[in-house]
Amino acid sequence: QVQLVESGGGLVKGGDSLRLSCAASGRTVSKYAMAWFRQAPGKEREFVAGISWRGGRTYYEDSVKGRFTISRDNAKNTVFLQMNSLKPDDTAVYYCAAEASGSSSAYFPTPEYDYWGQGTQVTVSS
Fold it and tell me: N or C: which end of the chain has fewer CB within 10 A?
């Protein structure tokens, strides 16, 4: 089993930056694709960014392209999401997820992710 724990969320103002971290334990996730999702109140969970297990491929939801960057440190079993130029619409609970097929893709449909964290709240004020 893999446990994922997110951290780094908080309350910031529009235009500010945050860096989220997702620490994995239980087994190495170096061969797993990783992703960040978010869920705002009253909305469905949505894909934000994904990264292939080698780290060479990334994929972003359109509204975060150019503002968010996903990265990973396989030696530390950790994935990051650097969020710049934050907007109130970015307010949500952010979740880390892992996909264990070993595929080289950076994106998978939501049901294909095998492990999920508990989430970290990000609130952006206007």
Answer: N
